[in-house]
Structure formats: C-alpha cells, structure tokens
C-alpha cells in the first residue's frame, strides 16, 4: 500500500486525464477524485494497527481470552460512473490489506481508471489473483450476488440497483454495504455569512455537474429568501460550462444522453408543478461540442416536498430552493425526506448549530461545511434510504466489514490428580 500510494501520486495526471476523457468531469475535479481515493490508500497503510484484536489474561483461573480479526476470503465491489478512481479506492485497498482477494466491477461507462489502478497495484507488488477486474452490466452483477465463493459485496450507486443487490446477496448469506441515492439539504439561517454560504452552495450544488451522492442539491432558506436567491443566480451564471479538458471549465457534461434527457424531464416537471425557473441551463450550447451532453447551472425556486423534482435524486447541475418560516420547520422538512446521506447548516450561531447536529436525521452533518465527507480514519456514514447494511465504508467500520472476529479461550494448567468429570455448566470461577 505504501508503494501503491507512491505510484498513484506519480501517475495522478494520467489518471485524471483518463477520468476526464471517459467521464467528462473537469480535470481539476478529476484530480480531486484521485486524491480523495489516495487518502483511503494511505489509511490502509495503517492496517497493522487497525486490525489489532483484544486480549485479557487470566479471565479466570489459568484461562486467557483474546480476539483476532481474520479475512473473509473473496470480496467484491460494484462501482458507479461518477467517481471512477475514488470509489474503487474506497473498496479494494482496505479489502486486500485485511487479507482478502477482491473482484472489482467498474462502471461500464468509464472503466479505464479501475484498469489503471489495478496495473499500479500489480506494479506495487500485489500478488497475481488478489485484485481482479470484471466488466459487464446486470448479468455480471447478478453473478457476483449469486457466487458462493464471494463473502461480501460493496456497492455504490442508485437505490434501485442497491436494494436489488442488497436483497439478492443478503439472501445468499453475504455481507453487503450499499451506498445509494441522496437528497442532501442545506439550511441557511438569516445570520449566516452571506458570501461564504453562497460560495459554498454554488460549489456544492454545481460541482461535478451535480453528479455526486453528496451534492448539495436543495437549500432551505429560513425567512426571506429573495436576496439569497438573487445572488445565487448571479454566481451560478458566472460558472463556465465546457469540455472538462478546457482549463477554466467549471462544469463538464453529464454522463450520457439518457442522463441529460432525464434531468431535462425533472426540471420540466418542477416547472409544471409550480416551481419558478430562476435559471435555465437546458439550452446551453458549447462551441465545438454541439452534440455534447451539457446542462448549465439550473435553479428552481418555490419547490415543495410533493414535487417530483424534489422526491427524485436529479443527479445533475440543478439546485432547488425551498422556504421555511422557522428553524424548526426547516429541520422538519429535511427530516421528512427519505434520504439521509448528508445535511449542512450555515449559521454564525453555536446554539443553532448544536440544535441542528442533534436533531437532524442525516449520517453526515456539515456546520458551515457544504459537503461533510470525512477523512478516511472516520467512515462514510450515510443513513436512512441512502445506506443499506450494518457497517459503513472505510474507517474502523470498513476494517470490521472486511474481517470476521474470532475469539480464543485457552487454558494452560496442571489438573489435580484424580480430578473427575463435571457435567455442570462451567462458571467463570470454576472453569
């Protein structure tokens, strides 16, 4: 793992260019994709400490008990298109340093980064057969779910696919960790620092063209939203939409024609349901890429919880504005949503921040932080409909996920001559 992180650093420009070429995100964003994955590789370098068990000597007369963590065997990962380096690096470095072999299925839309990472892992000295890449779609996913040799599956993607995998693989007795859809909210209180909050909202809402499970896609303004919405539109209009390889591009294209059409449909459904279109990015044309799958920053205001554009994860550069008359109402709006990946608050009040972190029902909470994804020594802690399983990705939970615990109770003592057989239930004093 130490060698692998060195090689990823060496080839980060090549990896980023591959991601931009296949997936479309800007080069700067692609570098971030690799870098955040690199942090998990560095986390895996501490596996000797992370895997340590527990030991209690002489728990009874001459008896010691200790626990060890052992690998499961064969594990698998099924990856989405939006982070071609980050998500595979969430999975296989931890799995193999825990002693497992790994079968990785990258997205069929952009598998190049996974192949490059596997080549780097081989160059770093990972033995043949430890990391295996398979390609395909539904049939391959079902084969992974059904294969008796595979003990655990990691998945990141949509709720439909995630719940299918969770149900099918769990029925076969496998462990599953499934990170799925999201509708991440920000609550903006009137006392928030306007400049800082607006910059954060624009970056978190439109970065990666909105194609990330921690995109901050919905904002709930407490009180008068008009000044905020006007400035939000102003800043969103300044963003540059272009091919990801263009140096000053802020947003690249979305992943496919089908994704573009779906995003267009959800925007239109919002308009037809009564939302106000403050900024429409559907008709954008990028010179030289007229047939590209580009969508410009789009902002809908007056959105309510019964609208399809709110209930569905849009997964595009579309920002929804909602209003609440009170902080309590804003918290209620967020908590009534079925998803629970992340939520953020923008405020200068410590009391409000404390109330928010205590009462909000989301796994990852940001206080003046728009995308609160923790560093890998913590875990990615999505909840509610955003996660299925018992143990989250990376961190201590990830180590526990890729290992099974074994306890050993041992006795080394001379038995007294003539000791008879006792069939009574042993107690801690008499064992």
Q: What percent of the residues sit in helical stretches (DSSP H or I)?
A: 25-40%
Report the major sheet.
7 strands, mixed
Sheet with the most strands: spatial strand order: 10-11-12-9-8-14-15
Q: What is the strand content? A: 15-25%
Assign an overall shape.
Answer: globular
Q: State the separation between the terminal residues, measured CA to CA.
A: 44 Å
Mean pLDDT: 96
Radius of gyration (CA) equals 25 Å
Number of strands: 18
Structural class: alpha/beta
Can you describe what's shown?
- The protein is built from 15 helices and 18 strands.
- The chain has 431 residues and is α/β, with parallel strands linked by helices.
- The strands form four sheets. It has a seven-stranded mixed sheet with strand order 10-11-12-9-8-14-15, sandwiched between helices.
- α5 (86-97) links the parallel β3 (74-78) and β4.
- α2 (12-23) packs across α3 (27-44), α3 (27-44) packs parallel to α5 (86-97) and α7 runs parallel beside α8 (159-171).
- The model has no long low-confidence stretch (mean pLDDT 96).
What's this entry about, in short?
This protein has 431 residues and is α/β, with parallel strands linked by helices. The protein is built from 15 helices and 18 strands. The strands form 4 sheets. It has a 7-stranded mixed beta sheet, with helices on both faces. The protein has a 6-stranded mixed beta sheet with strand order 5-4-3-6-7-17, with helices on both faces.
């Amino acid at each position: 793992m130490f060698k692998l992180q060195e090689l990823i650093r060496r080839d980060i420009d090549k990896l980023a260019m591959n991601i931009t070429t296949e997936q479309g995100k800007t080069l700067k964003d692609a570098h971030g994709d690799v870098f955040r994955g690199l942090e998990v590789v560095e986390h895996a370098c501490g596996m000797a400490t992370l895997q340590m068990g527990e030991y209690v000597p002489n728990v009874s007369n001459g008896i010691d008990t200790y626990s060890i963590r052992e690998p499961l065997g064969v594990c698998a990962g099924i990856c989405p298109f939006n982070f071609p380096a980050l998500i595979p690096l969430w999975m296989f470095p931890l799995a193999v340093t825990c002693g497992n072999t790994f079968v990785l299925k990258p997205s069929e839309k952009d598998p190049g980064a996974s192949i490059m990472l596997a080549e780097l892992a081989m160059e770093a000295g990972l033995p043949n057969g430890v990391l295996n890449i398979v390609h395909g779609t539904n049939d391959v996913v079902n084969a992974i779910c059904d294969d008796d040799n595979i003990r655990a599956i990691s998945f990141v993607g949509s709720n439909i696919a995630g719940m299918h995998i969770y149900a099918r693989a769990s029925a076969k007795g496998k462990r599953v960790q499934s990170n799925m859809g999201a509708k991440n909210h920000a609550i903006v209180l009137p006392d928030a620092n306007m400049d800082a909050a607006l910059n954060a909202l624009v970056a978190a809402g439109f970065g990666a063209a909105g194609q990330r499970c921690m995109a901050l896609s919905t904002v709930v303004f407490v009180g008068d939203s008009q000044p905020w919405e006007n400035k939000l539109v102003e800043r969103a209009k300044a963003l540059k939409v272009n091919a990801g390889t263009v140096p000053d591009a802020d947003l690249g294209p979305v992943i496919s024609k089908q994704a573009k059409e779906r995003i267009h449909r959800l925007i239109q459904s919002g308009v037809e349901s009564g939302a106000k279109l403050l900024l429409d990015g559907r008709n954008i044309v990028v010179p030289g890429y007229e047939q590209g799958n580009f969508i410009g920053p789009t902002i809908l205001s007056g959105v309510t919880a019964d609208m399809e554009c709110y209930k569905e994860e849009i997964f595009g550069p579309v920002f929804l504005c909602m209003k609440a008359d009170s902080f309590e109402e804003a918290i209620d709006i967020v908590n009534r949503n079925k998803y629970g990946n992340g939520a953020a608050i923008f405020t200068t009040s410590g009391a409000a921040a404390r109330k928010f972190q205590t009462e909000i029902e989301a796994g990852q909470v940001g206080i003046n932080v728009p995308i609160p994804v923790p560093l890998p020594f913590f875990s990615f802690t999505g909840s509610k409909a955003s996660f299925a399983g018992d143990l989250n990705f990376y961190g201590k939970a990830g180590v526990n996920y890729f290992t099974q615990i074994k306890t050993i109770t041992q006795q080394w003592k001379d038995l007294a001559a003539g000791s008879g057989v006792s069939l009574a239930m042993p107690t801690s004093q008499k064992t």
